[in-house]
From TrEMBL:
The keyword ATP-binding does not apply. GO terms for biological process: homophilic cell adhesion via plasma membrane adhesion molecules. GO terms for cellular component: plasma membrane. The lineage of its organism: Eukaryota, Metazoa, Ecdysozoa, Arthropoda, Crustacea. Keywords: Calcium, Membrane, Repeat, Transmembrane, Transmembrane helix. This is Putative neural-cadherin 2. It comes from Portunus trituberculatus.
Amino acid sequence: MGYHYQLKHLMDVVVVVVVMVTVVMVLQVVSGSGYGWERFAVVPAMNHSGALQTLNPLDYEDPSQRRGFKFKIQVSDQGEAGWQEARHMDSAWVRVLLLDDNDNAPRFATNLINLTLPEDTPLGHSLASFTATDIDQVSDASKFQLLDCNMSHNNGVK
Ligand SMILES: [Ca+2]
Ligand SMILES: [Ca+2]
């Protein structure tokens, strides 16, 4: 009986063989997958991840870029057929929106401003107003007033 008990339990022993498989994952931007795909690339990073990088400078002021980009990325664990084997792949959409930066100087409409004034123009009198434009969306067109330069020194006190 003891023999049978031992034999039964010996047969219950399950031998587990752990095969360590090194999975190499690769990522890529899917060619032609959407708007702006050619501006980005995925480069290998740590721990089976990839880092999305820009290949060209981005510019919010470029009308073709202002609405952003949308394209697909793929990951594959490189089954036997590589990128051809759907069960070893996944994909995701990436949407990129640009935030405007104040990276352009404001501009006057002209570089020469001519004024003709009577010599008895009162101090502090508004002489003219000018509008400058700025293509950055972070600021609206700004108005400037040219005032008599003595106003700030006298400050209205005699
Ligand atoms: Ca600006
Ligand atoms: Ca800008």
